[in-house]
Design brief:
Number of helices: 12
Distance between the termini: 66 Å
CATH architecture of the largest domain: 3-Layer(aba) Sandwich
Oligomer: single chain
Shape: elongated
Radius of gyration: 27 Å
CATH topology of the largest domain: Rossmann fold
Amino acid sequence: MAYKEDYLTPEAIKDIDEVDRYLAQKGKIDYSTTQQDSPPTAYSIAIEDPLPAPKFLSLSQMMSIDKDPSTMPNQIIEGVLYKGSKMIISGSSKAGKTLSLLHLGLAVANGQPWLGHNTHKEGSKVIYLDFELKPRMAAKRIAEMVRVNPGYLPTTQNFLYCGLRGQSRSLEDLVHYIEDLEDYRPDMVIVDPFYKLATGADENDAGAISEVVNRMEQFSERLDCSFVYAHHFSKGNKSDTDHIDRASGSGVFARDPDAILTLTPHEEEYHLVLEATLRDFPTPDPQVVEFSWPNFVHKPDLEPKLRKPGQTAESKRLNDKLSTALIELLKPNSIMGLNNLRNKLQDKTGEQIHPDKLRNLIKKTRNISELKTQKGKENIYSYTE
């Protein structure tokens, strides 16, 4: 981690003194003798601190570093993200990016699994910068997530939320505020969403986006923490596009982050495919998660099949067909056991039905109820007018 003292070399201090003497000689500016009618609304001179000299390491030094396990940073997300690295999560509109990031912050703060991936078991300090939700709405979501997840402790001191909706804040300003926090040095900073932080930058302009992510990298090094941010897909179905190229705008989004994660609609309704391309780890297998408010449920048994163009309408027709058949089965008599019900529904419709699909169908079909029975006995499914 670099400190200001590293940059204040005798040469740098000498340069600063020369600038100060020059400005003192200029004296107070008399605006009545200039073409301006009044002083400018903002007048400042910024001096970039010179970087410390780069270090050149021999091969033997590099080998020695590799032998020292204490030099490895913690894995914030095991097998995905080291502390000090950058990560992007992109997805289609309303795909649950914000909810997945809130879960990420709470899971990392508590050392709990996130979307099928373990996090640092001792917990890590998290700051959540929210440009999207009203703080009261965010509090409602977070409270509900904590209530239904016993591993998310409401007493944890590892999670700080900052509501920034409607505020135009530069990354520099936010870093200064974070540095001013007493006794709180974050391991991870989450920015939701990216475009609110990059106000004024054209997301298709590689130079403009590179400038923003480069500043993010500088501050990641300065704060010694990971930066995670959300971004959106370009329009249209993305099943035939490589997952790292689904993010809207410049190709920088596919080149710069150390970890690229995408949430893309699965062929099964209310499910998403989580894919990852990583710089520091082997590429993990795609995962399937079910969106079941307010949680994402990891579904390792489902194949990660992406939804194809036109499949939404086809899926709706199939669900309507299955719902009608389900009601017809349960109207005369209740049926005990999910597998028994699934077999009868498959025989009636000629369709292959995954147990998860049937569970979702039961949830979404009106007047279908599930009666929980004693331990060791199968549940009973009924239809009530």
